[in-house]
């Protein structure tokens, strides 16, 4: 079932993401779809904060993958130990993605993995995942559609 959230500004997007962290804290893969400037990285910043990550979150466009330790004890009890922020914008083929070790990161239940530009995954797209689609409504407003496939077989 799809949930839709309307954000009036970046702060609301981050607040929504902080609350969303509780759903994903025990590990899982989140795929973020949307155009440049649609709010994906803003969402990731709020999500990381909700997981207790204190470091500044910036888009990994040029490094492709950034790893952060999850420091919030509440969430470490739920097994998740690492948060991976992945940006596939610069990659073109599944072979390039396989070379990153991304498949292994996504399979490790101790990880929270967030992927921007997941359309590049192709056949590597995991069956168990959360999909969030970001749509620009106006300069500040965003529509965020959430679909939960995290328990699908």
Tell the overall outline. globular
Helix content: 25-40%
Instruction: Give the number of DSSP strands.
Output: 7
Which series of helices and strands comes N to C?
Answer: EHEHEHEHHEEE
CATH homologous superfamily grouping: P-loop containing nucleotide triphosphate hydrolases
Global mean pLDDT: 86
Strand order of the largest sheet: 1-7-6-2-5-4-3
Radius of gyration: 14 Å
Q: Return residue spans where pLDDT drops below 50 for at least 5 consecutive residues.
A: none
Beta fraction: 25-35%
CATH fold annotation: Rossmann fold
Largest beta sheet, briefly? Answer: 7 strands, mixed
Tally of distinct domains: 1
Which structural class matches the secondary elements?
alpha/beta
CATH classification, class level: Alpha Beta
Q: Specify the number of helices.
A: 5
Structural overview:
- The chain has a 7-stranded mixed sheet.
- It has helices at residues 10-24, 40-50, 73-76, 94-98, 102-107; strands spanning 3-7, 28-33, 65-69, 82-87, 111-116, 130-136, 142-148.
- The model has no long low-confidence stretch (mean pLDDT 86).
- 27% of the residues lie in helices and 27% in strands.
- The longest helix is centred in the first third of the chain and has 15 residues, at 10-24.
- It is built from 5 helices and 7 strands.
- The chain has a single domain, classed as 3-Layer(aba) Sandwich (Rossmann fold), CATH 3.40.50.300.
- The protein has 153 residues and is of the alpha/beta class.
């Amino acid at each position: 079932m799809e949930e839709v959230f309307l954000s009036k500004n970046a702060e609301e997007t981050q607040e929504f993401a902080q609350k969303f962290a509780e759903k994903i804290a025990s590990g899982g893969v989140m795929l973020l779809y949307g155009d440049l400037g649609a709010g994906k990285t803003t969402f990731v910043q709020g999500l990381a904060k909700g997981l207790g990550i204190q470091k500044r979150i910036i888009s990994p466009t040029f490094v492709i993958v950034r790893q952060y330790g999850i420091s919030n004890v509440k969430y470490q009890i739920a097994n998740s130990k690492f948060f991976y922020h992945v940006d596939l914008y610069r990659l073109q083929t599944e072979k390039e993605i396989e070379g990153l070790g991304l498949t292994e990161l996504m399979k490790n239940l101790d990880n929270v993995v967030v992927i921007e530009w997941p359309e590049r995954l192709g056949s590597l797209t995991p069956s168990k995942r959360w999909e969030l689609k970001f749509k620009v409504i106006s300069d500040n407003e965003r529509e965020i559609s959430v679909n939960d496939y995290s328990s699908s077989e």
